[in-house]
Amino acid sequence: MLTVVFDADCGVCQASVAWLRQRDRHGALRFIGNDAQPLPAGVTLEETEHTVVVLEEDGRKLVRAEAVARVLRELPRYGPLAAVLSAPGLKALANLGYDQFARRRHRVSAALGLRACAVSPPRKA
Question: Where are the domains of the chain?
Answer without folding.
Answer: 2-111
